[in-house]
Amino acid sequence: MADTWLVVGLGNPGPRYEMTRHNVGQMVVDELAARRSETLRAHKANARVAETWLRPGAAKIVLAKPNSFMNVSGGPVSALASFYGVPAERVVVIHDELDIPFDSLKLKVGGGHGGHNGVRDVAKALGTADFPRVRVGIGRPPGRQDPADWVLDAFGGSERKDLLLVLSDAADAVEQLIAEGLVAAQQKHHAPRP
Fold first, then answer.
1. Is 189 a catalytic residue?
2. Coil, helix or strand for 102?
3. What DSSP assignment string belongs to 34-92?
4. pLDDT of residue 162
5. Are 38 and 123 in contact (CB under 8 A)?
6. Bridge partners for 91 per DSSP
7. pLDDT given for residue 116 in this prediction
8. Which residues of the chain have pLDDT under 50?
9. Spatial distance between the Cα atoms of 170 and 185, rounded to a whole number of angstroms
10. Which residues form the active site (predicted)?
């Protein structure tokens, strides 16, 4: 299946974490599924998935949300990549990023994990860090708040006003990355929002 892409939103399972900053990757997958009127269903790889298409006649995409906790995301991602025969260069990982301001996106392929344990575990499980990433900015915590607590907090009131737009932009970035490649997606989505 040369034209199949695996699009994975990282996060933590269960209602306690559903609307937290750490789960923004899963929220983007939900947005991509909603655009296609798809429902994610249980998969034996310890994940929920929906098989769909970028658009009719275009690349097949498998939308996925691991059921594991963030720091052990690699097992489900690797199992899904193996099940669907998707090489690492077509495994798009969407995750939160402390070092990018809220309301901003960055896309890249490869490189370090930047202290993100979910990305670290995926790279270890895939045996390579050379997979595309859509990094959704959540910004650093104010004052002396521990970043570990910050990522597990729900988005604040002012952030929630813009969250739907952020999720939509990130979903657009995933679609453009698959359709047109990394450089085209970077050129559009790395620019500051007007």
1. no
2. coil
3. HHTT---EEETTTEEEEEEESSTTS-EEEEEEESS-GGG-HHHHHHHHHHHT--GGGEE
4. 92
5. no
6. 6
7. 87
8. 1-2
9. 10
10. 22
Query: Which one, of 80, 46, 79, lies nearest residue 63 by Cα?
Result: 80
Contact 126, 83 (CB under 8 A): no
CA atoms of 153 and 8, how far apart (whole Å)? 21
Domain layout of the chain by residue ranges: 4-189
The pair of structure tokens assigned to 20 is 């937290």
Distance CA 71, CA 117 (A): 5
45-63 burial, b at 16+ Cβ within 10 Å, e below that, comes to bbbbbbebebeeeebbbbb
Find the catalytic residue in 22, 43, 116, 189: 22
131 is in an annotated binding site: no
The pLDDT value recorded for residue 2 is: 47
> Residue 84, annotated ligand binder?
no
102 is in an annotated binding site: no
Q: Looking up tokens 């969407």, which residue turns up?
A: 94
Please give the backbone phi and psi of residue 131, each rounded to the nearest 5 degrees, phi first: -130, 150
Homologous superfamily of the 4-189 domain (CATH): Peptidyl-tRNA hydrolase (3.40.50.1470)
Nearest to 121 by CA among 178, 175, 62, 79: 79
Residues 73, 48: Cα–Cα separation, whole Å: 13
C-alpha angle 159/116/43, rounded to 5°? 90
